Amino acid sequence: MTMKTSSAAQLATFAAGLRFDAIPEPVVRFAENLLVDWFGSAVAGHGSRPVETIAHFAQSMGPAEGPSEVLVSRAGTTPYLAALANGAASHVAEQDDVHNGSVFHPATVVFPPAVAVAQALQASGRDLITASVAGYEVGIRVGEFLGRSHYKVFHTTGTAGTLAAAAAVGHLLKLDAAQMLHAFGSAGTQSAGLWEFLRTAADSKQLHTAHAAGAGLMAAYLARDGFTGAADIFTGPQGLAAGMSSDSDPARLTDGLGTRWATAETSFKWHASCRHTHPAADALLTVMAAHGVKAGDIAQVVTHVHQGAIDVLGPVVQPATVHQAKFSMGTVLALAAQHGHAGLTEFDRDYLSAATQALRDKVSMVLDEEVDAVYPRRWIGKVTVTTTDGRTLHGRVDEPKGDPGNTLTRDELTAKALRLAAWSGGAQPAEMQAAIDALWNVASWPRVGRLLGQAA
Amino acid sequence: MTMKTSSAAQLATFAAGLRFDAIPEPVVRFAENLLVDWFGSAVAGHGSRPVETIAHFAQSMGPAEGPSEVLVSRAGTTPYLAALANGAASHVAEQDDVHNGSVFHPATVVFPPAVAVAQALQASGRDLITASVAGYEVGIRVGEFLGRSHYKVFHTTGTAGTLAAAAAVGHLLKLDAAQMLHAFGSAGTQSAGLWEFLRTAADSKQLHTAHAAGAGLMAAYLARDGFTGAADIFTGPQGLAAGMSSDSDPARLTDGLGTRWATAETSFKWHASCRHTHPAADALLTVMAAHGVKAGDIAQVVTHVHQGAIDVLGPVVQPATVHQAKFSMGTVLALAAQHGHAGLTEFDRDYLSAATQALRDKVSMVLDEEVDAVYPRRWIGKVTVTTTDGRTLHGRVDEPKGDPGNTLTRDELTAKALRLAAWSGGAQPAEMQAAIDALWNVASWPRVGRLLGQAA
């Protein structure tokens, strides 16, 4: 072929052709981390009303049994319907991973369809990892391509998510490059998800991730069976960018394919609060650890922040709900200081405790020129702590905990997943521990089976 | 409530509250015509590769049996998966209905989910009709609201289609007005469908209608179970118009609700060719009937057309494929003159016959000021026919056959549906006749059952 190969075709060729052995070892390990972290978030969806509603719909429209696991109910169904249910489940606790540059949450749209299909095909753990990396690499680049103008109206995780799901499932189905390109066309022409639901705090976020997982999976299955899609759903004159972006950047679609591993740029969430609170919380924990400061030793904390943090968090002085508390800098730092971590359980239990309120009111924010100048490229955390015995201590982190340069250890990821399961009641501690232990060895699995046991 | 009720809420209240007895008798009869016409188009999808691919996917992801009928295969499945399959089937022959003002094909996104759900619920024929009218009224208004800018990039039948499907299914599920509004939010946030597939003649059109039918159905089921959606998915600052239109007209959403019956403005397709050929073909048939002219008597035909017809049809002089022949004014008029109708079967069999080619080359187009001036509001057909015995005859229609002012009779609709079934082989003539005979009495059905028999 003498024609210049389109970005879409290059991306499809990459996604179809990716081989496990071509993925650098650290990226494979990172993908395992992402999988375990996702698993905790999916189990955290147990008991959530919008999640259970979608899971009920999916199960009621499918067979009574099937090879693919609905994690919130332990039911088995077909891969399409399991992808819908688990896609809904994985984003609701807001503890799933995020790729900062694309403002895209990959795990919730990649792993639900990939795991469901791997279970149905009895694919190996290596195939699951490879397919998931394909999904991350594609989805992140599509999110970057669609740009900030897109994100203003569209929920990128819903829109780019169809492509991520199609890439992952397409890889498991062993699509060739031409079929993968057709799958991209069929996925992208189903891309959807509007932010309008935020105005009334409606349930659509769970529908968006379910939809992306299901639509992308369907696109890949159809392509396997000969169904064709647009040759360039990204940059064509009636494609995604034409319809849904005014600042798209086609170069991002193929940026560093095979050399830049966007998968490993993904951030894990550690604290269960607004991201603007994380740098200061981590800086406080750093200085407490370095100087042996306990929560009771703190007289005052001044956080040195960027303007965006003041804009978003400034209005929240006395939070009235647990959701609001996640936007209270004082509450987040108070919980972190007391428990070493501001997680879902700590919020639910202690966000209005006397000790939390007392410590909360000792925290203030001031604009910091250095921090503000590098935001949002970097999220620096700086705090000045005054202790009850009169010391003035300075704490700093250059990347908040969970970002690629300050990522979570496997022990921290295990602990986080266990906490999420305990929080939702989606799995018993012992079975969750066993499931996580097994998942750490996913690359050696001959076949992907159930991740949790049957219903007790 | 003292707030001004939003257009979205008014539309939802109308869709939820519509009662059979409130629909004027002629509109009910018209809806029955639409249902029979849709049925023919759905059966016409039998054997089509893209349709069968989607139907196979839907059936493979569902149970082995179910209450809802997949028309192309006679299988039974759940309503969601039947809606996907039949939504794919109904648009592929391009013989399904169209609402000119909204550039929207209602039948293919309304009846597949409505019939599938009615079968599952054992709803009455009256309930099916009422729900379908709700779907038409909503979908057409949403299409009009989204405007021409939307249609330039988006396939309105795919996007507005999710709302139409949600309204129809929501009515069958007896959603109240608040639930219907939530269903609209969940449907609209899944609206999708890009024209980019046209560039390579890919299969996406069938995916768009399947997607709309399935996503709208899902939105309604979720709303029944308490799932919430955006309060104004239409005009909200991050809603459909914000993301996907630059000339939206909110007044259209509620235009004449309960007094203007948009359902009855729908056009039936008669000839199986590009719409630009229809006015002239009908004018030719009119003059032939009036003066007893046979095909063999024609020496020359000059068609007096609008510029758009010349732009689209002008390049097609010697069509090489049956698809291209549908854009050849000469071929269409030649088939109509010989057979009284240019249908799918006539095209397949005769588009390159010697008689067709000879007659085709006697047809020309000239720009007509009167016709061009009123286009696209009106589609006037004018021809001047010269006969072999030297007569010059003028023919004219002010509305092409199938448009509301020149609609099809029940005999013509029956004949069309029988032809479509014979063309695809989707049903035997006798069983199709029996099914159509039964459908004409749908309003008296106590329960909606299967439309076709089991597989022979």
Automatic annotation (TrEMBL), chains A, B:
GO MF, one example: lyase activity
MmgE/PrpD N-terminal domain ranges (all copies): 10-250
Domain MmgE/PrpD C-terminal: 271-441
Any Pfam family hit: MmgE_PrpD_N
Annotated family: Belongs to the PrpD family.
Name of the protein in question: MmgE/PrpD family protein
The organism of origin for this protein: Ottowia beijingensis
